[in-house]
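Researcher: Last one for today. Full complex below.
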Amino acid sequence: MTTPVLQAEGLTKTWGGVRAVDGVSFALAPGEMLALIGPNGAGKSTLFNLLNGQVRADAGRVRLAGDDVTGLPPRKLWRRGVGRTFQITATFASLSVAENVRLALLSHHRRVFSFLRPSGDLFAEEAKELLDRVGMAAQLQKACGVLAYGDLKRVELAMALANRPRLLLMDEPTAGMAPEARQALMAQTAAIAQAEKIAVLFTEHDMDVVFGHAARVMVLDRGRLIAEGAPEAVRADPRVRESYLGKQG
Amino acid sequence: MAFDWQGLVVQGLNGLASASSLFLVASGLTVIFGVSRIVNFAHGSLYMLGAYLAWTLTAHGPFAELGGFWGFWGAILSAALTVAALGALVEMLVLRRLYQAPELFQLLATFALVLIVQDVALLLWGPDDKFGPRAPLLRGATEIFGARFPLYELFLIAVGPVVLGLLWLLLHRSRFGILLRAATHDREMVAALGVDQKRLFTGVFALGAGLAGLGGALQIPREAVTLHMDMAVIVEAFVVVVIGGLGSLGGAALAALIIGELHAFGILVFPRITLVLVFLVMAVVLVLRPQGLLGRGAATAPVAAPAPPLPGPMPGPLRWAAIAAAVALVGVAPFLGDYPLILLADFSVLVLFAASLHLIMGPGGMASFGHAAYFGAGAYAAALLFKHLAAPMEVGLIAAPFAAGLVGLLFGWFCVRLSGVYAAMLTLAFAQIAWSISFQWVEVTGGDNGILGVWPSGWARGRLVFFYLSLALSAAGVLLLRRIIRAPFGLALRAQRDSPLRAEAIGLDGFLLRWIAFAVSAALAGLAGALFAYGKGSVFPSFLGIPRSVDALLMVLLGGVQTLTGPIVGAIAYAGLQEQLARLTDCWRLVLGVVILALVLFFPRGLAGAFRRRDA
Amino acid sequence: MLHGVGRRGLMAGVAVAALARPAVSRAQGGPIRIGEINSYTAQPAFLGPYRNGWLLAQEQVNAAGGIDGRPLETVFRDDAGKPEDAVRLAGELVNAEGVALLAGGYLSNVGLALGDFARQNKKLYAASEPLTDALVWSRGNRYTFRLRPSTYMQAAMLVEEAAKLPAMRWATVAPNYEYGQSAVKWFRELLAKKRPDATFVGEQFPALGRIDAGATVQALERLRPEGIFNVTFGTDLLNFVRQGNTRGLFEGRTVASMLSGEPEYLEPLGEECPDGWIVTGYPRDDLNNETHVKLRDAYRQKFGELPRCGSIVGYDNVQAIAAMLRKARSTETEAMVEAFRGIRFPTGYGTGEVTFRAADHQSTLGAFVGRTKLEGKRGRMVDWRYADGADYLPGEAEVRAWRPQD
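Model: Here's the assembly. Have a good evening.
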């Protein structure tokens, strides 16, 4: 059996007496697309931040390809092959699309602390390739500050792929996008993930996206995992229906 | 001496009286900042106007004729109200046009007001210090533990809590106050609620100005009214506001209390500590609690507006014009007189100084109110090497950037962890600590008399050669900065400014980037400082004083933080204006203030931005 | 307002200087230009009257035919209290304005910076106000001359009086910078020589212009001194005195105070003026010798106000420079330096002639020592006498050892 890319063991986090995440354990295999769903306030964001290093866990461990990475800051996780996209896109507004991606490449290749060499053409080709894959090659020179929201999501994806990740953590990857665009972006993501054997963990509100692209679904409610399995099985789970899907009508 | 607890209690009361006065000024400042995010440099000027107006109103006009209790208090309150009205006027005429400008840009406008008020006060009230009348019924003193304690100080001790209470009522029990608190918390939300923001902001500014005016007016029975009151109070008020936590009234009260008491007791133990005490306290507080004592973190920290895309490259003709000007300068220099050469050498140095600050303010995204510390560190490194080791200029010029860079590494390690105004104020605190070392360690630094005789080596002593040397080193420094900004490091530096979250997520260490940038910036400021020292032949604590830090800040802001052209244009414009005006008129501060104000209103993106196109 | 007249006068002087700018004339018969640098915007209260006194003297010298027919002309510059600006302006005045010599300086560090500039550039610098002893002693040089009685001299004058009094336990209060520190140092040293039994029980060093007067007065009160040596001046003095009066700090105590008898500091005190302080100063209203009365009247007529101590300093500095120029018969620096050493000129105080000592380039201009007294709503100096500076200077051999050899 292969080592899971990501493994959570009994992750727990308490905010002011409330257990936002309560003993969550799961594993993610290479190339697998796993969706994390749950009602608002279920603890999805907290769990996500425990996994990406932004928040320190009260208890439990996170393993990346078998190594204990609990408590490592996000930038160190990136070095170990974790790429991220954010619920509200985070790109560098004053930099051009190409520069955004090139910077991610520079960081990956540890060329950031170079003080005198003009950065102009470093990794220009690689950046173009990555942007081509997400359909942004036509807008290389535009500043991110002036891009449309959907395009920013694509730039983020290209940046997340710059370190040849084995794991992508995507927080609400399609939030704020039009329905067709959502499907297209996730289809792109799925294709890349499959081609490069990248495991993907994503949270999502849009059930069409979840059931259309996830190989497996986890359901979080009040900090606990209440169901996990293939999309159909989860959809049929009565507890899930009661806590979550029921409310969605 | 027997343990004299009664004496200590009385000393504690002295501290309370100072704390109370300080709180009045600081409360206005913090209210204004909380809502409008304006760093109001002119707050001290409003305080001073309050005092002068109160002095005039108690001596002339209807209140003076009325006399007695009502005459006095009528004058005090009228002075405060007049200052409040002035504040509203300033907000409507000037600041309102600048809310969309980049962060800290309003600082330029308020600084221009400081200059204007200084000269207007001199013209209206003359240069002599004024003594106001004592307050009716509160003239004398009462006996407390065998020591005579002025009644007016007791009254002041009561005023602080009363004003705090009234402000609390205003904020929690009135519609204006509730809106004001909401705006402090979330400006956009209040706008969305359909509140007339303009009126709210004008009202807030009037309130803050009125508090400053009241603070000043209430001083007249206790302190002389002088032309230096503005600067004396503004720095201390800022310290109080920052220690307390920006926008927090309770914090301001607590911080005023701490500073007031520390002053009162500090002088018993270390009589010479008053120069640096408040800054030591601020440094400690900010290192331990980066949001101030009662600051509420993200909600009160200034939200950095997203940086606009970089302007496009300099238009061809303009670029050629700039290059042609530089070449012409080098070619014409031998035919200039000595004084133009001295000036040009000075300008070269100031350009490098401003450009070094630009690295951390523009690409780095951090403001520094204490950049003179590194300018001074370089200057003192050169001067101390000369004084103690008789090192020649060549050695000094090489050592200075290293020394300043080391100081930058030391101070920067603390400063770059903080954000926004907090970080800027911590740089100020360190700069003041450095200043007080240069001032008080007389055996080594010569104290305020400085170190003399730091002249260039023989070959560089001629004005022309020294100008070429200054120009060459400054140009080298600026070109180095330009390369750094365009290198991967510069890209990463801008990236961590734009989005710390994303920078971290692609493996960039924001702290390390800012720290290195801070040290590089400090090193180049140090080179500028050393050149300046050799140009003047001497080094003084004023090299690292607040005015020099402010100068650097103004040059960068005036030129624009967007590109490296900004500080270059800004430095030349600012220094050139000041030099010309000071020779033409005694009222150069007034004229300079008006000019800066006009520039700010017409070129809100800085002078350099005015010459460039925006990239699409 | 009174100072308005004064200001217009000042501006006129500047305007004359500005108009004459392009014509840098060194020709015989053209004006002799003096470059004057001072902290006009930083210290307006002291320096406005100073410039008035200067202009009055210049007018009188020129009315009397100038220097061998050449009028004096002064170019004024404001250093805003920054020594580095003063050095830049010195360069401007020497190189662009073609002045024959430099003068001015109020703050000690500005004076020292200008002195070093003079040494480096071999230009004469006639320092007016800076009090620091270093200017003529530890950092003295061939090209720098100082008019005003120094910190040491003023402290020595006060010690002489203080030593006669019974007070034994002394406390000091002084602004925290070189002037304040030196004054305290000299007072302690010189008093210890005259009264070995005197003790110093504590000191306060408030930041210049930032005194926390209530706390400072209270801190001094706790020490229960018999005598207080005060060096604060200007705003600090006003605040210190008001708090001290209210809290009874000065009752039953001897106070010796530097410069407090000068009108610039005494007048703003108004009815807060304390009684019986031993001060150095300038009893303008009661100094009724012929020379001074004439000067006082001329000044009042020209500027609509009475002269202050700064006015006399400005006036005397022009007189000294004029006397030097008459003797030198040249505007060549070395000739002027030689002429300046040992030059004698009459002071506007009307107390006789003053000389610049050849040994250390310090003038023997003195000051008045007396006591303060509140009369009606204003304070004045009483029981005063003129203390000749020559009597309060260390011997020439002694100071020669302190000066760098040049």
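Chains A and C do not touch (no CB pair under 8 Å). Chain A has one domain: 6-91+148-248.
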